[in-house]
Write the structure tokens for this entry.
Amino acid sequence: MSFQRKPSPVQPSLPLQMLLSFQETTLPLMVVANLGSLAYKGWLLPYPSGAFYVEIVLAVLQLPIELLRLLFGSKGNLLESIPPLVVYFVLSLLTPFLSAFFMAWQTYVLAFDQWMHAVFLALSGAQFLMAVNLTGNFIDEGPEMGFMSAITASIGQFRSRQASLLVVGLDNAGKSTIVQYYKPESSRVPADHIPPTVGFHIDRFTRNHVQLTVFDMSGSARYRDLWPYNAAEGVAPFCHADCDLAGTMPAAEVAAILGLDAFKDRSCECSALTGQGLSQGMAWLIEQLSVAR
Ligand SMILES: Nc1nc2c(ncn2[C@@H]2O[C@H](COP(=O)(O)OP(=O)(O)OP(=O)(O)O)[C@@H](O)[C@H]2O)c(=O)[nH]1
Ligand SMILES: [Mg+2]
């Protein structure tokens, strides 16, 4: 079994930029509408002393705070730079509080206030998620990890990861049975219904939070020319011993005969039929992928 990292192309995100520009343009309108709503309420309704002026100040302050946030977001996106995105993330922490204030906590809340700030909050939330995804891509691409990158790296960890696995080995070795075992139960082909693979078979599923694309190659001599040796970035030997059968050789003995001494720490007895040992095998493989990142 060999593994390969999927390259992540890093470019500024167009949808994120469109959203940022849209909010930059409409923000002054929203602030003016907010002040208009406050003036209307102040004219009609009695405010507790001081509350009216506090709300006016917050409405005015929303303009520079949100504008700075959007400008740093645009700078980080367009320059493909992480530090401005970190400032964007920090300023984004204020957005839900300001929106919540005008949607629920100010003295008088009109339906108009709720709608206006709910739309603004929803757009900011979508934009925040896009920025997290983009930052993760930048981190994947950059070899050096400074202080700022380390902060956003932890945010990037929540992104789903992807990897391609190439499964090769002798025919009838149990490759397809192992691959099926790793799939979710609902889409798994029962072990006694798995035919010998013709050519190769591609499966896509998620395991240990990693989206895997598995190329299950036939081991038959006539198809071995198809094995794309050059496509692999690394090789993870995976010695599969049918320990569910009586009289089978212990895994350590099989590894010794195959000269896999260097991989002793990774040999364990497993069965594709019972699943014994397979979870540890996949956990080790995923760990290698994380290390390779
Ligand atoms: N007892 C036992 N039988 C197994 C195990 N793994 C696979 N088999 C059986 O071995 C046979 C071959 O399994 P496959 O998964 O089709 O083998 P393969 O390596 O994909 O073979 P090709 O596609 O021809 O390269 C099937 O009858 C499986 O049920 C195992 O762990 N224990
Ligand atoms: Mg097969």
Remarks:
- Residues 23 and 70 are 8 Å apart (CA to CA).
- The chain has two domains: 7-156, 161-292.
